[in-house]
Design a protein that fits this description.
With 306 residues, the protein is of the alpha/beta class. It is built from 12 helices and 4 strands; from the N terminus they run αααααβαααβαβαβαα. The longest helix is centred in the C-terminal third of the chain and has 29 residues. 29% of the residues are buried. It binds 2-acetamido-2-deoxy-beta-D-glucopyranose (NAG) (6 copies).
Length: 306
């Protein structure tokens, strides 16, 4: 009986693939990338547009040919440095003062924290970065249209001596330079405190953003030292690498500030593990503060009556 049931179960059970789909589909033709690009552009206009695109006349269809031309037939590891200029200028738009957020080594967290520009703007919260965020691409010198059809074979965005300039690394490098030059008001820099050194000279932030901040427009930079609740804290505001970052900001005329384990970031992370001792402590201390404030208001009220 059991055997029969089992056989029936196996026969009627839909065939579920045994491996999870974590491999991106290997083949992507240029038309599909174009649809992805223009689709992302329309989505950005819909989701962020009302806050940042109202006085710009960016046309999604006009941006695509600029990117296609920049990438086509470019060698995989010898991508020319200024190819994206036209696109970078055409896709630039307004970002509110004091909202520029730079980062290093904390991609997933910084994207949660920025909250699609509601709190801050990372480069991937601007149209320029958004169009390429989580996208893999490169040229191919022998393809008829010059675009690689197997993005999995592209060298990616890691900067390294074995592939000094790829379609992606040159994009993020030059886009970062533009973003940093554009910054005005107080800026924030989110740094991974679970890595040592936390401030590293090989990062995009160090190479392309820090040297392009303009002290005339950026009086102050606040460093946010962050870590996942269960990860170790290997560096703090007073660690050697962060002291180096502070003094290089100071040298350019930008006043550095630094916050270890900012409370808003910690509260955001506690949403995932509210029962962790550190989170319980954090939440109960918020209660205490609220309670004190409440007591204080009552006392003030009583005195005002007297
Ligand atoms: C890279 O491209 C430039 C021209 O864009 C060329 O002069 C140079 O020789 C190339 N380098 C390598 C290593 O192929
Ligand atoms: C910091 O870096 C470590 C090591 O690369 C990584 O495991 C961790 O997820 C990072 N933390 C954050 C907040 O991104
Ligand atoms: C270009 O694409 C073809 C076809 O997929 C592939 O065989 C070739 O290796 C690629 N060339 C380069 C330089 O990546
Ligand atoms: C980066 O730091 C390492 C060691 O701290 C040093 O040897 C190297 O020259 C630095 N590179 C740059 C570009 O500053
Ligand atoms: C810095 O900003 C000021 C004020 O906008 C501008 O006049 C100056 O040219 C900028 N400097 C650089 C190096 O871009
Ligand atoms: C920042 O620079 C000023 C001079 O421009 C100097 O007096 C001060 O000590 C510096 N502070 C730090 C923390 O390096």
């Amino acid at each position: 009986m059991v055997v029969i049931l089992l056989i029936v179960f196996i026969l009627i059970h839909p065939c579920v693939p045994s491996s999870r789909c974590n491999e991106p589909r290997a083949y992507r033709d240029t038309e599909e990338w174009k649809h992805l690009f223009i689709g992302k552009c329309l989505l950005y206009r819909n989701d962020y547009g009302p806050r940042v695109l109202c006085d710009s006349n960016i046309n999604c269809n006009d941006l695509w040919p600029m990117v296609k031309t920049a990438v086509e037939s470019q060698p995989k590891c010898n991508f020319s440095m200024d190819n994206y200029e036209e696109f970078l200028i055409a896709s630039a738009h307004y970002v509110p003062e004091n909202k520029f957020l730079f980062w290093s080594g904390v991609y997933s967290l910084v994207m949660r924290y920025s909250d699609k520009g509601r709190k801050f703007y990372t480069i991937s919260d601007t149209l320029t970065g958004y169009l390429f965020d989580n996208v893999v691409w490169c040229g191919n010198t022998t393809e008829a249209d010059g675009i690689e059809k197997y993005p999995g074979t592209c060298p990616g965005f890691e900067i390294g001596p074995e592939c000094p300039s790829s379609a992606q690394s040159v994009f993020w490098a030059t886009a970062s330079q533009h973003y940093a030059r554009h910054a005005y008001g107080e800026v924030h820099v989110m740094i991974n405190a679970s890595r040592t050194p936390a401030f590293r000279n090989s990062s995009y932030f160090t190479q392309y953003e820090l040297p392009n901040l303009n002290a005339t427009k950026v009086p102050k930079a606040t460093i946010l030292m962050v870590h996942y609740i269960t990860d170790p804290v290997l560096e703090t505001c007073s660690s050697e690498s962060i002291e180096k970052l502070k003094s290089s900001l100071n040298e350019t005329g930008i006043t550095p500030y630094c916050i270890d384990n900012p409370r808003d970031v910690q509260l955001l992370l506690c949403v995932d593990i509210p029962t962790h001792p550190q989170c319980e402590q954090l939440i109960s201390s918020s209660h205490r503060e609220r309670y004190s404030l409440y007591l204080f208001s009552i006392i003030v009220f009583i005195f005002s009556l007297a």
